Amino acid sequence: NAGVMQNPRHLVRRRGQEARLRCSPMKGHSHVYWYRQLPEEGLKFMVYLQKENIIDESGMPKERFSAEFPKEGPSILRIQQVVRGDSAAYFCASSPSRGYNEQFFGPGTRLTVL
Amino acid sequence: GQQVMQIPQYQHVQEGEDFTTYCNSSTTLSNIQWYKQRPGGHPVFLIQLVKSGEVKKQKRLTFQFGEAKKNSSLHITATQTTDVGTYFCAGRQTSGSRLTFGEGTQLTVNP
């Protein structure tokens, strides 16, 4: 039973480029959460999605960031026109239902903006 | 909005010493979870506490949830080098709502 998969594991972008991060939840999980972690800091909630629906995007920056979880395929976190401050680890987590106990985290994507 | 604070931010111990991290929420929580993140790794779920005053044990780890459901603690007895990592608490205001993570306590264990 494969865990949560994220790719790429490492991504380097120059300022102004776009970053596209993918997350495939565990089999049978339809709830996906995205978090951002700066070095030496905690996890900051960004967005919570169900298949084809954004449930809670209160942690998403108003501009340049978007997320989707289509009916088929992985969840995508998209960052347009990246800036140096976007450099961080982005973790995706999944759960089988909204009230489920634990969230299963993927290995993360380390984004570096040059 | 809800805030979850954790102390200390860093803790260095000698192997065999005990370790405790504390978590405080600005609001009453429905439940609280604890996660461990090894250096360079991803968070891994440890436990969830739901009831007021609840105490749960996992081998050398003891987790407590305060009576008012606003604070929690994780205590490790006789630390080992395998305990190294950052321990995060994460609280939910209501069942099914998003998790709010604390800033974590980074534990280093000197052999």
Protein traits:
heterodimer, A: 114 residues, mainly beta, four-stranded antiparallel sheet, globular, B: 111 residues, Immunoglobulin-like, six-stranded mixed sheet, five-stranded antiparallel sheet, 0% helix
Structural account:
The complex is a heterodimer of chains A (114) and B (111). With 114 residues, chain A is mainly β. Chain A is built from no helices and 11 strands. Chain A has strands at 5-7, 10-13, 19-24, 31-37, 43-50, 53-56, 65-68, 75-79, 88-95, 104-105, 109-113. In chain A, strands 2, 4, 5, 6, 9, 10 and 11 form a 7-stranded mixed sheet that branches. Chain B is mostly beta strands. Chain B contains no helices and 11 strands. In chain B, the strands form 2 sheets. In chain B, strands 2, 4, 5, 9, 10 and 11 form a 6-stranded mixed sheet that branches. A 5-stranded antiparallel sheet of chain B has the order 1-3-8-7-6, with no helix packed on it. Chain A binds chain B through residues 33, 35, 40-45, 48, 56, 58-59, 91, 93, 98-99, 101-108, and chain B through 6, 33, 35, 41-45, 48, 88, 90, 95-96, 98-104, 106.
What is the structure about, briefly put?
Chain A is mainly beta and 114 residues long.
What is the CATH class name of chain B?
Mainly Beta
Count of discrete alpha- or pi-helical segments spanning 4 or more residues of chain B: 0
Strand content of chain B: over 45%
Overall structural class of chain A, as computed from helix and strand content, comes to mainly beta
Mean pLDDT across residues of chain B: 94
Shape of chain A: globular
- How much of the polypeptide of chain A forms β-strand, as a percent range? over 45%
Outline the biggest β-sheet of chain A: 7 strands, mixed
Helix/strand structural class of chain B: mainly beta
Q: What pattern of helices and strands is seen along the backbone of chain A?
A: EEEEEEEEEEE
Largest interface: A-B, 24 and 21 residues
Largest sheet of chain B: 6 strands, mixed
Number of strands of chain B: 11
Report the helical percentage of chain B.
under 10%
End-to-end Cα distance of chain A: 37 Å
Q: Helix count of chain A, per DSSP?
A: 0
**Arithmetic mean of pLDDT of chain A:** 93
Gyration radius of chain B, rounded = 13 Å
